[in-house]
Design a protein that fits this description.
The protein is an alpha/beta fold. It has helices at residues 16-27, 34-45, 49-53, 59-73, 82-94, 101-111, 126-135, 160-170, 184-193, 220-231, and strands at residues 2-6, 116-122, 147-149, 177-181, 197-201, 215-217. Helix 7 links the parallel strand 2 (116-122) and strand 3 (147-149). It is globular. Magnesium ion binds at residues 7, 9-11, 181-183.
């Protein structure tokens, strides 16, 4: 038996383009270096994660702050409040988000395979992530009890206790499980520490970490072809 455990953001769907597009709409300008924009935005995302998960601050507030910090770093002219407006624009874009055809096809085949169990392990605040889960229609492939949002557990990625929760829910041993995620720090290190196999989606071609994942891919296309060749 094999358990495939997916992160959501930038794993099951690509969030990066929407984050940049939302800022461009609000600022009325073009971001000339979107990869650097995303790097700064994601660096800022590591800060305040605990406050977000505990509900001390809202996703809108934290995303507004991340946007304005990113604008500053890239010397993009903005007015106070543009960060929160960008967060709102991002939410609007998210309401049209969907999985790629390739991902849908791969998940369809896994969901109908009796030797494969599927789960989701995502970081963040409950309401925001649950909304996304609904928008993406993940209940088509994942049992609702096997969709774990860290904000509902009291633990933050990469806490191995989150992996233990998944093991228990799926009834699988560590070496039967695969974590599939885009964040080396949040998705991959916790899974390696838990004795799981790992697939790292290294979209920004970040430098190689000291402990290598079992597989590394750089795009959605590479990910779905790896998943299909390995698990179907
Ligand atoms: Mg992610």
């Amino acid at each position: 038996m094999t358990g495939l455990v997916f992160d959501i953001d930038d794993t099951l769907y690509c969030r990066q383009d929407m984050l940049v597009k939302a800022a461009e709409t609000v600022l009325g300008t073009t971001v000339t270096d979107p990869l650097y924009f995303i790097k700064i935005f994601y660096d800022k995302s590591d800060i305040n994660m605990r406050d977000l998960e505990s509900g001390k601050i809202t996703t809108r507030e934290i995303n507004g702050w991340r946007y304005e910090e990113t604008f500053k770093a890239l010397a993009l002219p903005f007015r106070s409040g543009d960060g929160v407006l960008s967060a709102d624009a991002y939410l609007e874009l998210q309401s049209h988000m969907c999985l790629s055809e390739d991902m849908i096809e791969a998940l369809d085949s896994f969901a109908s395979n009796p030797d494969i169990k599927l789960a989701v392990l995502t970081a963040g605040e409950s309401e925001h992530q649950r909304h996304k889960i609904d928008m993406l229609g993940l209940d088509r492939w994942f049992n609702s009890e096997d969709i774990i949002v860290s904000g509902e557990t009291g633990f933050s990625k990469p806490d191995v206790r989150l992996c233990r929760i998944v093991e228990e829910k799926l009834g699988l041993k560590p070496d039967e499980l695969w974590m599939i995620g885009d964040s080396y720090k949040h998705d991959i290190t916790g899974a390696i520490d838990s004795g799981w196999h790992t697939i790292w989606i290294n979209r920004r071609s970040l430098p190689h970490p000291d402990r290598l994942p079992d597989f590394e891919v750089t795009s959605d296309k590479e990910l779905t072809s790896l998943l299909r060749s390995k698990f179907t």
